[in-house]
Design brief:
Layout (H helix, E strand, L loop, with lengths): L1 E9 L8 E9 L3 E4 L7 H8 L7 E6 L2 E3 L8 H4 L2 E4 L13 H11 L6 H7 L16 H14 L4 E5 L7 H18 L2 E5 L3 H6 L3 E2 L4
This protein binds adenosine-5'-triphosphate.
Adenosine-5'-triphosphate binds next to helix 1.
């Protein structure tokens, strides 16, 4: 069981190829790290793996099944299997929504009942914060809500793109512990992208293979 990108070439409209014939694999239940210089295409590869950016060539498959298309072109049942955490929780959330609504969003899409309070507790958010909007909480609290939103989706794979870069050391450590335990206990495959190779080593991430 794994999330695989094979022979991927990708770029953006109006740009030449940003990554060329790259392959990458995230095995279920393991924590894979990806470090590398700025601008080398890590986020681009992450977006391809998260089914958000359509590659110009190559194949993405989940547990051996090829996924065609990206975004809303992919069925919600398949999209649900891969969640992504971004560097900036503010850019990744709707400022008009409460944290409760943000956390509930993916579960509502796949019509799954979730108990928001339970998820909040799991990620270390106190229940009184659930009725606040993003501008009324800290970056760390908002990122915890984003982690809860990702977990509400019950994904098989989680892609974290510099997800702790804006947070303090204590919040970073607690989010890392949470993601580690999800990988271990729920068998989730996790890709952790960070410019901080020491952080990746500290959480025991296996170095991802990039040709
Ligand atoms: N939306 C976009 N439109 C056009 N070009 C983009 C876009 N996003 C990224 N790029 C370009 O693609 C290249 C790779 O960027 P990418 O963000 O994937 O690298 P990265 O390794 O994640 O960098 P960093 O560590 O700085 O986040 C860069 O040259 C960047 O300018």
């Amino acid at each position: 069981m794994s999330l695989d990108a094979v022979d991927i070439t990708a770029g953006y409209s109006g740009t030449s190829d940003v990554i060329v014939r790259e392959s990458f694999s995230i095995p279920a239940g393991s924590l894979v790290g990806l470090a590398g210089p700025s601008g080398s295409g890590k986020s681009t590869l992450a977006r391809v793996l998260a089914l958000l950016l359509e590659p110009r060539a190559g194949v993405v498959s989940i547990d051996g099944r090829e996924v065609k298309g990206v975004g809303l072109a992919v069925s919600s049942e398949i999209r649900r299997q891969v969640a992504m955490l971004f560097q900036s929780p503010r850019a990744a959330t709707d400022p008009r929504m409460t944290l409760r609504a943000i956390i509930e969003q993916p579960a509502a899409i796949v019509r799954r009942r979730i108990v928001v309070e339970e998820l909040a507790e799991r990620v270390g958010l106190t229940v009184d914060l659930l009725d606040r909007r993003p501008h009324q909480v800290s970056d760390g609290q908002l990122q915890r809500a984003c982690v809860a939103r990702a977990l509400a989706q019950e994904p098989q794979y989680l892609i974290c793109d510099e997800a702790t870069a804006m947070l303090d050391a204590a919040t970073t450590a607690s989010i890392m512990r949470l993601v580690q335990s999800e990988a271990r206990d729920a068998g989730m495959g996790v890709l952790m992208i960070s410019h901080d190779a020491e952080l990746l080593a500290a959480i025991g991430a296996v170095a991802g293979q990039r040709p």
